[in-house]
C-alpha cells in the first residue's frame, strides 16, 4: 500500500511501549495490535507518548487525562 509508513518492528515496539513518528504521531502497541494517534493531548497539546499504557488505557500524567488506546475515547 502506498500510504503505509514503516515505523519499526512489532517486537521493538512491544519493548519500547511507545514511539514517536515524524514528531507528531504517537504509536503504541497493545495486545499485539498497533495504534497510532496524534501525539498531542487534545486538552493542552502536550506529548501523549510520555504517558503510561496499562490494560489498554493511556494515562497522560500532566493532567491525568485517560484514553482507551483502541478507540481514543475516555474509558467507560
Overall structural domain count: 1
Tally the helices. Answer: 1
Low-confidence stretches: none
Strand content: 35-45%
Descriptive overview:
There is one protein chain. With 76 residues, the chain is mostly beta strands. The chain has one domain: Rieske Iron-sulfur Protein (3-layer Sandwich), CATH 2.102.10.10. Helices cover 9% and strands 36% of the residues. The protein contains one helix and six strands. Strands 1-2-3 form a three-stranded antiparallel β-sheet. A three-stranded antiparallel β-sheet has the order 4-5-6, with no helix packed on it. A hairpin with a 4-residue loop joins strand 5 and strand 6. The longest helix has 7 residues, at 10-16. Pfam families: Rieske (PF00355).
Write the layout of secondary structure elements.
Blueprint: H1 10-16, E1 18-21, E2 25-30, E3 33-38, E4 52-54, E5 57-60, E6 65-68
Précis, in short:
This protein is mostly beta strands and 76 residues long.
Task: Sum up the structure in keywords.
76 residues, mainly beta, Rieske Iron-sulfur Protein, three-stranded antiparallel sheet, 1 helix, 6 strands, 36% strand, globular
